[in-house]
């Protein structure tokens, strides 16, 4: 008996949701029906596709080998259906992921222009740090990612997506805020608010800012630019952030951009899994995003 698209959709849903119950809910079928479909697929292939660990299913080597082919066949079947109908296929939804700065400040206007240009309205957007976005791309849970630093991940392709100006900010009542000019020595022995591990802003701070000091300390590690700006305004420390994230707070005089220019712009990246099937709509969005973004944002 040949493999069926139903079996492949079952397989892909389990890889994305991790449990039979969650996958069955996502596909609107019973857990028993989903379990039977998976069992039939594994029987036809002659080997299991998952390891069973603590009531969760984790892809084994065979499952990892099958996943890109299953993903491609599902998307190609949707494209075939679209040849004969004017209705949008559910699989035309572009699953986007973006790190904090890109997702909150750069992607919304880009998505609006894309929708106006193409009339394609089906996109989802997950905002998380760069490492999390890349992990979900690797697991086929996202189609396209936008990130602020490149992790050690050899399953993904990284395409340039402009660059970002970074600034160092302080509370308006901080002693450094009143100085017309500063050197790196002036920033020694300061407390810093930094992002959590996996964040592009954190990587930039450690690679281009912390290296300038002989001594510094962490005040807090937080998981969003907004929470860092609030903490800077409260006087909890200095921070290095994207100008996109800080400019409204600077304009409102909640924080002050210190007069110490950062020479290194932060490169931004568009990430796609290397063996991910790239549908016509996916390629169109990638081309649109890269063409719409100036070399310096």
Automatic annotation (TrEMBL):
It comes from Vibrio agarilyticus. The keyword Glycoprotein does not apply. InterPro entries: LysR_HTH_N (IPR000847), LysR_subst-bd (IPR005119), WH-like_DNA-bd_sf (IPR036388), WH_DNA-bd_sf (IPR036390). GO terms for molecular function: DNA-binding transcription factor activity; transcription cis-regulatory region binding. This is LysR family transcriptional regulator. It comes from the Bacteria. Belongs to the LysR transcriptional regulatory family. Keywords: DNA-binding, Transcription, Transcription regulation. Residues 3-60 form the HTH lysR-type domain.
